[in-house]
Description:
seven-stranded mixed beta sheet; alpha/beta; Rossmann fold; single chain; DNA polymerase, domain 1; 292 residues
Amino acid sequence: MESQVVSLLNPQNGKIYLDATFGAGGHTKAILNSSPLCKVIGLDRDITVLPFAEKISEEFPERFKFINGKFSEVSDLINSELDGAILDVGVSSMQINDGERGFSFMKDGPLTMTMGRNNISAYNLVNNYSEKDLSEIILKYGDERAAPKIARAICNYRNGQEITRTLQLAEIVCSVIPRKGKIHPATLTFQAIRVFINDELLELEIGLESILPKLAVGGRVIVITFQGLEDKVVKNVFKKYTHTEHKNKFKESNSKVLFKNIVKGALKPSRDEVRSNARARSAKIRAIVRQI
């Protein structure tokens, strides 16, 4: 969806853009290549992306800067006015593909799932939280109907031994949910645990609330989400800032709406995009622009 993102962001020479989920730098590089005199600030809470940032810094020494931090910290980390921002939220393919990060239910690894500086890991959650709390987390953040059964199975298993590996947890989930179709039974459970321990939904909400005031007139925010809870946060924040009654958020005295939608609703990937990138099948893009 890189071409769609760049088209919506519409980078211009002399402007400054924020890639708030830098990752491997794909969006950053596409923005820098699309406009030869624009600048990009790359932001990521995951310090393991530093080699990718260093490579882009070497290629674009005067036009790129990397900051290790959360996008909820934008207000403190970035002083300059922005002309646009991109957020590609959720777990990255790079994180999933590295079994040692503990995000994948298909690869064996330590039960971590942490994206950066975290107070807890998946290991702490799975081995120490009560059955009731586990059930509520899996239901709330994974929308998993079998949450009570899964929580009970986890607690029963840990009574005998600690759960330390991703495949251990995946097998526990599979023991109570029969596999049907292409979707792995542990998908929603792993999603729920990851979202909870990384506080992803609150990070997203605060991140958007921090970025929007920094936008110059004409500045755009593009957000890609991959599951319903993320999209709901983006939809609600965007709705808030595209309605007149919230004009005082930035202390404007006139009655005009500060932001407007660039596209109606959410854009979805093309069939060709889904064929080439299976992860894109559930993606949604929302975008707004500051007009005063």
